[in-house]
Design a protein that fits this description.
Elements: H1 5-35, E1 43-44, H2 45-52, H3 56-68, E2 72-74, E3 80-83, H4 86-89, H5 95-115, E4 118-125, E5 128-135, E6 150-152, H6 157-164, H7 168-174, H8 191-204, E7 207-210, E8 217-225, E9 231-240, H9 241-265
Antiparallel strand pairs: 1-3, 2-3, 4-5, 4-9, 5-6, 7-8, 8-9
């Protein structure tokens, strides 16, 4: 049966309307993301609704969808949101990450040369670390194959450093539903033990991972601070546990100093020792 002309026109009109509606939704989602114009900015539904001229219910649906896709994440204050790190993984870098790359790369190159091991810079996303910089060494390891790789924060040295830097109430919130699975006999799975470990990390300024996530792999990490003094990332050296044991004290000193240098390059003025 041949579709009549009026019916065809109606179908085309309906299709065009559907396309416009779909594009409008995408456009509004992009407007929501662009509303977070300042690095670290956090906005609530009411603010976004007023700023964009959209209804609160529409903004709420958009924000909920973007958060589900990890393009947005919950902020430090309930009901507020900020840009998610998935944007970094997709290549839409926030300015501070570009600065981090520029500040870290020459220091990482020196650190790799001094240790002969793989070096990383990582940031925190929920209870995971995302590796945003990575320099391979000739000592190839069967892990961390690419930038953007994620690992549970509690069994990496970088992750411990970043968790230890969180405000206590924020750390408590993130660990509320923490249900870890042991990867090795040395994985920390008890919350009280983890909290004690993080308190020690915060006090001494560096963290170690001794086969807690992968057998035969050890690492040491230290915090990178931004201009405002807040911990924004962590630098780490990762290697075979046997090699790392023979050089752990030296590797720790080198990582701590590298973190200080990167922090200074980012504008942080460290207090006198």
């Amino acid at each position: 049966m041949t579709l009549s002309a009026p019916a065809t026109a109606s179908a085309e009109k309906g299709s065009a309307h559907s396309d416009r509606a779909l594009l409008a939704s995408v456009r509004n989602a992009a407007r929501v993301l662009r509303a977070f114009s300042r690095a670290g900015q956090e906005l609530g539904i009411t603010e976004l609704s007023r700023q964009l001229g959209l209804g609160k219910s529409t903004v709420h649906r958009l924000v909920t969808t973007l958060a589900a896709e990890r393009l947005l994440e919950r902020g430090s204050t309930p009901g507020r949101y900020r840009l998610g790190l998935v944007l970094y993984e997709l290549g839409s870098n926030v300015t501070e990450h570009v600065d981090l790359h520029q500040a870290a790369l020459p220091v990482l190159t020196t650190l790799r040369h001094e240790t002969g091991e793989m070096v990383h810079v990582a940031v925190l996303d929920g209870l995971e670390v995302v590796y945003v910089e990575r320099l391979e060494s000739h000592n190839m390891l069967p892990i961390f194959r690419q930038v953007g790789h994620r690992l549970p924060a509690h069994w990496t040295s970088s992750g411990k450093v970043l968790l230890a830097a969180l405000p206590p109430d924020e750390l408590t919130r993130r660990l509320a539903d923490w249900r870890p699975v042991a990867q090795t006999p040395w994985t920390i799975t008890d919350k009280n033990r983890l909290l004690a470990e993080l308190a020690a990390v915060a006090k001494r300024g560096w963290a170690q991972n001794n086969e807690e996530g992968h057998l035969g792999i050890a690492s040491v990490g230290a915090p990178i601070r931004g201009r405002d003094g807040k911990v924004m990332a962590a630098v780490s050296v990762v290697g075979d546990s046997a090699r790392m044991r023979t050089m752990m004290r030296r590797a720790t000193a080198l990582v701590v100093e590298s973190a200080r240098v990167i922090s200074r390059r980012l504008g942080y003025s460290s207090p006198p020792a």
